[in-house]
Amino acid sequence: MRRFFIKKIVSFCFSTALSGLSEMPVARGSAVVDFPDFTRGQWIHRKPKFAL
User: Fold this and answer.
1) Of residues 45, 2, 34, 36, the one with CA closest to residue 16
2) Sequence-ordered alpha helix ranges (H) in the chain
3) In the predicted model, what is the mean pLDDT of the chain?
4) What is the SS3 assignment for 41?
């Protein structure tokens, strides 16, 4: 049950960041906006959890 809530919280944070980052470039005339790294750089070293 706890894992479910953690996934919901992460999903909410991600979608909130995306909506804000979608609006900012439009308001700034298509300016580039940095996306926050919620993984603190760990995405670079993450191994895939599925087989291709």
Assistant:
1) 36
2) 2-27
3) 79
4) coil
| Stated pTM of the model | 0.42
> Residue 45 and residue 9: Cα distance in Å, rounded?
23
Specify whether the CB–CB gap between 48 and 29 falls below 8 A.
no
Percent with pLDDT over 90 in the chain: 0
With a cut of 80, say whether residue 7 has pLDDT above it: yes
Predicted confidence at residue 51, as pLDDT, reads 63
C-alpha distances in Å from residue 36, one per residue of 1, 3, 20: 28, 23, 11
Residue 30 backbone zone (phi > 0: left; psi -120 to 50: alpha; other: beta) = left
